[in-house]
Structures are given as C-alpha cells and as structure tokens.
Amino acid sequence: DNGIVDCRGKGLTKVPDHFPEGIQELRLEHNEITEIPPRAFVPYKRLKRIDLSNNGISKISHDAFQGLKSLTSLILYGNKIKDLPAGIFHGLISLQLLLLNANEISCIRKDTFKDLQSLNLL
Asked: Known PROSITE patterns for this protein (predicted)?
C-alpha cells in the first residue's frame, strides 16, 4: 500500500467518504464533482496531496480542508471556483503548492493566504 488512492476519471459527482484513514495522496481529477462539503477530508490526517483539478467545482465549504496539517499540495485548477470563503486555508501549515489557475475567481480576500507560511508556489 503506497498510500495513494486513484479515482481519476471515474465520473464521481461528489467526494467519496470511505477511504482508508492512512492515505497520503488523493487523486480525484477529471471527475464531475461540483462542491467540496464541510470537513470533507477530516478523517485523513496524513494526506499530503489532494488533486481536484478538472472537475466542475463551484462551491467549497470554508472548512472543507480542516485539520489537514500534513497537506503539502492542493490542486484545484480547471474548475468553476468563483470565490474562496474566508478561512478556507486556515491551518494548512505545511501547504507548499496551491494551484488555483483556470477558475473563475475575480476577487480574493486580503487575508485568504495568511495561514500559509510554507507556501512557495501559487
């Protein structure tokens, strides 16, 4: 078990909630997911990488990524995200890579990235 769950291109319409707790990488790109619900990844404390690129995500709960202290990469490009809720990245202290390009974001709150001390590529 290499800690990777690969659900690429499976036609998923929502984030599944039955993964092994020890997973480190979650590949969910090229699906039809439209929203990320509250605390969607809370059981998966060891997650280092989440790839949600090329879905139809337009809504992300402010606490969707709560508790992911080990997360280093969050890939959200190629979606329909229009705005980022206040506090959405709160607590993501290890995050180094955040990809938000190819979305529909028109304005960003000034404190959106304030918790991301480790960020080196946006």
From this structure: LRR
